[in-house]
Amino acid sequence: MSDTPNAISRKTLLTAGAGLAAMALDAGPLRLSALAASPGGNAHLAALMAGNARFVAGTPRCVPATARRTELANGQAPFAAVLGCSDSRVPVETIFDHEPGDVFVVRVAGNFVTDTGLGSLEYSVAVLKSELIVVLGHSACGAVKAATQAVKGETFPGHIQALATAIEPAAKATKGQAGDWLANAIAENVRMNVRALLAQSTILAQAHAAGTIAIVGAVYDLHTGKVNLLA
To answer: What is the distance in angstroms between the CA of the first residue and the CA of the last residue of the chain?
Structure first.
């Protein structure tokens, strides 16, 4: 992360109301629309969704970023951060039709919260002043499928098992629900990780309580190219 971050106090990074994280845990089921509290975040979400509509329509505005590369060498100020899946079919900036420098992207197979990923998102919000976080799942996610298989007793080699284990709660929560189990688990995994961002990070909880960030969940459809917001 070689950039020129905005100055923030050590107190802001290292202390936040401990009750904020507790509030996120005690709030019970959360509607994702209720988490989109920041006016700036809502405007940024509209910009991302408009870009996705251009992508779906085949009318993107983004051009080769050679000139933008030179500009960004001096610093970055991404308006949004995305926790997305590592899947090669889900290039975040492309599907939202935005240029380098607009979106701070954290990717891990299964788009779930890890300590290092959470630190990256905290950096985006606290230092780079991003005003929106999107947890972005996608259809036919292999990591979530592995979690459903793990629920049925299958195991996986190496560290792949850790991916399945991390997502297994979403698979268990949706087993037996009406509809497609994998699709339900993909959406539930997004919802769980939206809540985890607030429950596990006092920095994000404090920013959300202050109304300076919005946090939403969405699922990208591999067939249509459309990003669908979750309610």
So the answer is: 33
Longest Cα pair distance anywhere in the chain, in angstroms?
52
Strands 103-107 and 80-84, sheet pairing: parallel
CATH architecture entry for 16-58+75-229: 3-Layer(aba) Sandwich (3.40)
Q: What is the pLDDT of residue 19?
A: 35
DSSP β-bridge partners for residue 103: 80
pLDDT above 70 for 11: no
**Cross-strand bridge partners of residue 105:** 82
Quote the Cα angle for 104-63-51, to 5°: 55
Q: Where are the chain's structural domains?
A: 16-58+75-229
pTM: 0.83
pLDDT single digits (tens) 150-184: 999 999 999 999 999 999 999 999 999 999 999 99
Sort strands 103-107 and 132-138 into parallel, antiparallel or unpaired.
unpaired
Type of residue numbered 112: F
CA distance 127 to 89: 30
